[in-house]
Amino acid sequence: MTVTTHRRVLGIIVFVTVLLYFVWIRNSGVIPSLPHHVSYSETKPAFSRETIKQPAITSDTKPNIIFILADDYGYHDIGYHGKQYGGIINTPVLDKLAYEGVILENYYVQPMCSPTRTQLMSGRYQIHMGNQHKTIGHAQPLCFPLDEVTLPQKLREANYTTHMVGKWHAGLYKAACLPHRRGFESFFGFLVGNSDHFSHSAGCSCENRCTGIGYDLHENDMIADPKKWKGRYSTTIFTDRAISIIKEQQEPLFLYVSYQAVHAPLQPPKDPAYKYKNISDSNRSNYAGMVSYMDHSVGRIVDALKQTNKWNNSVLVFSTDNGGASVGNNWPLRGQKATLWEGGVRGVGFVNSPLIPPHSRGRVSHELMHVTDWFPTFVQGLAGGSLNGTKPLDGFNLWETIRDKKPSVRTEILHNIDPMITTKEIPAHFSHSEELFTPTTNAAIRVGDWKLITHESKKGDWIIPPELESTLRKPAAINTYQPIWLFNIKTDPLETNDLSKAHPEKVRELLQRLQHYNRTSVPIFYPNCDIKGSPSRYFNFWIPWGETDWKQFTQIKSDSREN
């Protein structure tokens, strides 16, 4: 055999050996193969909510999702914020979870209860659902629109079990409005927004159009037995039920724990361990006790996840629904609940999960995020589900931002446009244009670091916690009303320095973005309360009062399990 022939034979042997090696490792799963009909160019990620490529998620790897929502929780009143200013409300569990996870410091919610809850459930701005104004009243013929696809519905498509405990506050006048019929396999909690924490009863939210006080604890579509539950503290029974679900339900699990704490009425638990004797203001003292007991309750939920070996495959998210009200404190932010100032819309929020790599834990994220983002983040990012079938989403899948420190794809947030809050006074020097939003309507938008507010009739102030009034000083009060405010939130998160006159080009840019959103809004629907919604007509129960056969919803579930 010649040298040339020998080299050719040797080359063929080497080629065949290498080829067989790659076939072997491909078949063994070391190198994933592409489907035969997919080209390499087609595997490049496209920038859309549905087509962004995600790591493969199988039924064995889908994590449990635990979403805990606090009610009217002030920005100052969680330890990792408040301690910076000498705060004395103790939240050791929440602090530990936050410090060991990812603290969301550029995270926004809506300024009131119902809007945040409906946007969480839909992934869509309230202007796209007709719910731009205030909250949903108990006796209003109104609820979270029935043609919206909900978060639990999409998670059930991804083979999750879905359960809700706590406060709904997204409408109740029709049976179809109830959480048990909006995608949750079980529901135990309040339908209205301000029930007594011990008696579980609530009065009407509409003056002169509703009468009576109604019992409001429900299990699925039925009344939870008053004989069993009256007198038991709401945060306790909601936590007990959440723990029962964790112990009994199969994985993957979506559990939405929506505490009514720390919303009024300001009723701490009777346990003296939660009395704040060092706070002289009685309302603030009661509120502080509610906060610390909620903190303890979150710890019980985490313990249950660990005891059932579910924690290592769980993602826990904690959020508030809006800024603190008059008692809940947002210091040093400006404003409070029901306003578009930072104190009304910047939320307390964090994520903790063993599924976040160690190098990504224990950090503060300043990436922009909004409550609508949880919908695609949970459905697509965590559950590996499809977003097909929803209406156009306003939220983004930000799981890689949370898990991998990737920049947020969100660059702006529409805080709201409320066409029912207006003025006839057109600002001086404002030139009307079809491309510009007319600043006679209450609205706010964040674009990059800039925030524009129009016609905010509530001037906004910086409210010092009563227990710290002797040690802190607030900025000078701004007593003048003006139709347009402009702030650089990155450099001025306290909204002390209006820049609208210094940057007219930025005002124009943000008014253009507001006009863009305004053109996509749907007509507002905010009917008056109906006397037919009075609980006095229905044995003093809050039920789907708009149903012809309403008596079926006054049945009492007397076989409720002990927790």
Brief overview:
This protein is an alpha/beta fold and 563 residues long.
Task: List key phrases describing it.
563 residues, alpha/beta, eleven-stranded mixed β-sheet, four-stranded antiparallel β-sheet, 12 helices, 16% strand, globular, disordered N terminus
Shape descriptor: globular
Major β-sheet strand ordering: 13-2-12-11-1-10-4-5-8-9-19
Please state roughly what percent of the residues sit in beta strands, choosing from under 5%, 5-15%, 15-25%, 25-35%, 35-45% or over 45%: 15-25%
Task: Give the C-alpha Rg.
Answer: 26 Å
Helical content (DSSP H or I, runs of 4+) = 10-25%
Number of strands: 19
Tell me about the biggest sheet? 11 strands, mixed
Through-space gap between termini: 86 Å
Overall mean confidence score, pLDDT: 89
Category from helices, strands and their pairing: alpha/beta
Number of helices: 12
Which spans have pLDDT < 50 for at least 5 consecutive residues? 3-7, 13-56
Protein described:
With 563 residues, the chain is an alpha/beta fold. Helices cover 24% and strands 16% of the residues. It has 12 helices and 19 strands. It has helices spanning 3-27, 79-82, 92-99, 113-122, 151-157, 226-229, 234-248, 282-307, 342-345, 374-382, 399-404, 504-520, and strands spanning 64-70, 102-104, 107-108, 161-167, 186-190, 201-203, 213-215, 217-219, 222-224, 253-258, 314-320, 349-352, 363-365, 369-370, 412-422, 441-447, 450-454, 484-488, 556-557. Strands 13-2-12-11-1-10-4-5-8-9-19 form an 11-stranded mixed sheet, with helices on both faces. Strands 15-16-17-18 form a 4-stranded antiparallel sheet, covered by helices on one side. Strand 16 and strand 17 (450-454) form a beta hairpin. The longest helix has 26 residues, at 282-307. The protein starts with a helix and ends in a 6-residue tail after the last strand.
